[in-house]
Amino acid sequence: MASPAATTRTVALGDVIDLERYPVDGSDAPRRRALVEYCRAALAFEGACQLPGFLRPGAVEALVAEALEKRDRSHRTDDVHNVYFERIAEADPDDAAGLLEHSSKNAIAWDLIGADSPLRIAYESEALTRFIGDALSMSEFHRYADPFGAASLMLFGPGDELGWHFDRSPFAVTVMLQPPLAGGEYQYHHHLRSESDENPAGVLGALRGTQAGRITLPSEPGTLSMFRGHHSLHRVTPVSGERVRINAVLAYSATPGDKLNGLTQELFYGRRSD
Ligand SMILES: [Fe+2]
Fold first, then answer.
1. How far is the CA of 1 from the centre of ligand 1 (A)?
2. Average pLDDT over residues 202-221
């Protein structure tokens, strides 16, 4: 029988997140307010907010080890799609919707993440959930209820990438854990389309590399990123070298109890919960 100590959390939030620099728990209320304002301004100005050193180096190291250890239980996806995540019958190099993009990666599902994993400590904390919701200006903000996709670890080996695309969801929250030796860069074009203008010429220019305004984000380990990718075309460039690119993806929703449908679970994690 497990002793009570075995089920008690021994890792505190402050062991995982640098709360002196980023007091998301409200321990320094004026600084938390300033941080929320900073994130909102960065998201409004350039569609992305980067918080380097958000996870402590020890937590980053533990998560890299956990990802590599559980790699053989990850699920691989390898697919082609266009920038709108549609499968197309025939490629057309002169049409923004007709260019084929390639995406491949391995995902370690939420139910495989350890009880004392820094990812679980961070993701399950109310303080972090509230902070990210505030930074994204969401009045209703909840952790994802999906058993696989709530928070997961992504591994990109040599040749893996995320091709150019627009997200269906309004935001994405990630933590960089290990950049590769080369490639694996997060690039985007801020606000390339809008609700009223799909801007196909701009999309085509971005895919051909002729469109101005391409931004490459730094990839320092431990950085928390919030990104609005619904109107900003983005990609992860192909990884090269033997060092795997590893990041964590934290999923949230404006709706409580929200989760993936069985088909999407199957696609990204190779299993379904229904
Ligand atoms: Fe995306």
1. 44
2. 96
pLDDT of residue 263: 94
User: Which parts of the chain are beta strand (E)?
Assistant: 48-51, 75-81, 101-108, 142-143, 151-156, 162-165, 172-178, 182-183, 186-189, 214-216, 224-227, 233-236, 239-240, 245-250, 252-253
Give the pLDDT mean for 87-106. Answer: 91
Helix (H, G, I), strand (E, B) or coil at 104: strand
Task: Work out the average pLDDT over 46-69.
Answer: 98
How far does residue 6's CA lie from ligand 1's centre (Å)?
38
pLDDT at 3 over 60: no
Q: How far is the CA of 235 from the centre of ligand 1 (A)?
A: 7
Q: Residues with Cβ within 5 Å of ion ligand 1? A: 167, 229
Cβ atoms of residues 256 and 146 within 8 Å = no
The pLDDT assigned to 266 comes to 95
Give 74 Cα–ligand 1 centroid separation in angstroms.
Answer: 20
Segment 48-58, tens digit of pLDDT: 999 999 999 99
Distance 153 CA to ligand 1 centre (A): 15
According to CATH, the topology of domain 10-269 is: Jelly Rolls (2.60.120)
Q: Where are the domains of the chain?
A: 10-269
Distance from residue 53's CA to the centre of ligand 1 (Å): 22
